[in-house]
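Input sequence (291 aa), recorded before submission:
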Amino acid sequence: MAEHDWLAARFEAHRARLRAVAFRMLGSLSEADDAVQESWLRLSRSDTAGIENLGGWLTTIVGRLCLDMLRSRTSRREEPIGAQVPEPITSPAGGTDPEQEAVLADSVGLALLVVLETLAPAERLAFVLHDMFAVPFDEIAPILGRSPNAAKQLASRARRRVQGAGTVPDADLGRRREVVGAFLAASRGGDFEALLALLDPDVVLRADPAAVRAGASKEVRGGPAVAGAFSGRARDAKLALVDGAAGAVWAPGGRPRVVFGFTITRGKIAGIDMLADPARLRQLDLLILGD
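Predicted structure, token format:
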């Protein structure tokens, strides 16, 4: 029992980093937690006498698990997670410390997650492990079953896509609130041109499965199409803080039914995420600011 407790304590020292790796790989906190838990099960069943670098060993295990999960999505011909809404970064009751969640949210950002989810599984793993966690390519290569040079090329390809996507969101909360407020006003007033002026030409509107069942389009791309989807609508949506970020909420009778998350880059709305799943809405920290 003492040895088991000692091993568990060593594992816990690495849990936060492993979870961060898995979240960036999978874009889902629940799946990230599953991967981390599986890494613990594999560690507890392994002969640890020959493990010299436990952190590296665990990172390799989590990397392989995440790669398998990403490839499984493709092999099942599921819709890529990048075409869905990444899970909100929130803490369920009894979950991880909210302060830790906030750190994770700040370090990732929805915009970056959306871009990461468009990468091929091997590209994503190479980029995340090397560029975000400084894992050497000679350690990444065995996970991918490729040479270090091939792993380097995968990371380079992914890096170009990430850098070219302009995924760094605006940091000024006041400015983001102004943009969202102007968007809601233009939407209510049916001002199509004003909406277009606020939207990035390549803006993407995504709805979660619950919103789709209620009649929303799963995905709408491009400024004109997204402007058309909102023009003359959102009359009862109110400006809100969603997990501390500028957003909007439709809450008839004071009960949140739909939450809109906005990704704002260089003063333009680059992404809108529509959440209507009641279980997910209950996890959000919502503060309605007014009309």
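Checked by second reader. The domain at 2-164 is CATH 1.20.140 (Butyryl-CoA Dehydrogenase, subunit A; domain 3).
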